[in-house]
Design brief:
Elements (H helix, E strand, L loop, with lengths): L2 H4 L3 H5 L1 H18 L4 H5 L6 H14 L5 H6 L4 H4 L7 H17 L4 H18 L16
Helix pairs in contact: 3-5, 3-8, 8-9
Length: about 140
């Protein structure tokens, strides 16, 4: 047995299915209630039940736990499955902010939050399918 096989997964470190479900439910509650996530909310249908379940199933496997999503639907093919949704910088940023808030509120350890936030950003940015022109004035070096 290698040391990697004995290390707890992110799924285990977070607290398993109960904690992942709590985080996902809080994420969708925030998206549904908070005006700062209004754009993100418009990208979803009126009933969030299916979205809640699919994100929960996906995150369980993605974090190293049970493969609920792939057992039901096969390979996630995230980008393909979201192509019908216009995902730009604003949607990406709102998704990331909402997930960060959910992780904090359900008590995910700060070190784990940082680790997940980096991975979430990479995935969310890769999911973008809308080109947006942004003014870079405040981001110029020397400002």
């Amino acid at each position: 047995m290698t040391s990697k096989e004995t290390e707890p997964t992110a799924f285990d470190q977070i607290g398993g299915e109960a904690r992942v479900r709590h985080m996902v439910d809080r994420f969708y509650d925030l998206m549904d209630l908070e005006p700062r996530y209004a754009h993100l909310r418009t990208l979803h249908g009126p009933d969030l039940t299916s979205s809640r379940d699919r994100l929960f199933w996906f995150l369980c496997g993605w974090l190293g736990g049970p493969q609920h999503y792939t057992d039901r639907f096969g390979h996630p093919r995230l980008r393909m499955r979201h192509m019908h949704v216009p995902i730009g910088v604003q949607a990406r940023n709102e998704w990331l902010s909402c997930m960060q808030e959910a992780m904090t509120e359900v008590g995910i350890a700060p070190q784990m939050q940082s680790r997940l936030a980096e991975s979430f950003f990479q995935t969310a940015d890769w999911m973008r399918n809308q080109e947006e022109t942004t003014r870079m004035g405040s981001f110029k070096s020397g400002d």
